[in-house]
Design a protein that fits this description.
The protein is an alpha+beta fold. It is built from 3 helices and 5 strands; from the N terminus they run αββαβαββ. Strands 2-1-3-4-5 form a 5-stranded mixed beta sheet, sandwiched between helices. Strand 3, helix 3 and strand 4 form a beta-alpha-beta unit.
Length: 156
């Protein structure tokens, strides 16, 4: 009698749950992205959270996903984790965003590095990375906006 081998079978699925009712919005500006994710960032105000928002071809959100919940000063965002949900959701584009609990949305060197990695990965898999928005507090922002957009600054 031979040894019986056990095979593990995994199933990947996306589950949608309604977060809020309201008008269908188009996420086409960094200010709209920051507003769209405000309630998500308020759930963990003293930790960095990194989110991906998956979009249809008209830039309407079809889902949002917390990629990671980090510490007061960092959150991880590997391209594999960011784009996994986008592929499963059939997204044609996405925006990513994370918060800075300090309130100052100025990006760190690590923020710039992860944005470049995501930009390069997006090109390879043909899903548009529309922006990476760093959300903070308008009072702590030298520009008074409360967010930083990598697209507006030419990194994406």
């Amino acid at each position: 009698m031979g040894e019986r081998k056990i095979m593990r079978v995994y199933e990947a699925k996306i589950v949608y749950s309604l977060v809020s009712l309201g008008e269908e919005i188009k996420l086409d500006t960094p200010a709209k992205v920051a507003e769209y994710l405000r309630s998500a960032f308020e759930e963990n105000p003293v930790q960095e959270a990194f989110y991906a928002v998956y979009l249809d071809r008209k830039n309407h959100p079809i889902g949002r996903h917390m990629i990671s919940l980090g510490t007061a000063t960092s959150a991880l965002a590997a391209p594999r984790e960011v784009f996994r949900g986008a592929i499963l959701a059939g997204a044609t584009a996405l925006v990513v965003a994370h918060n800075h609990p300090s309130g100052d949305p100025a990006p760190s060197a690590a923020d710039v590095q992860v944005t470049r990695q995501l930009r390069d990965a997006a090109k390879i898999i043909d899903i548009d990375l529309l922006d990476h928005v760093v959300c903070g507090d308008a009072k702590a922002d030298p520009l008074g906006r409360g967010y930083y957009s990598f697209r507006e600054c030419g990194v994406i």
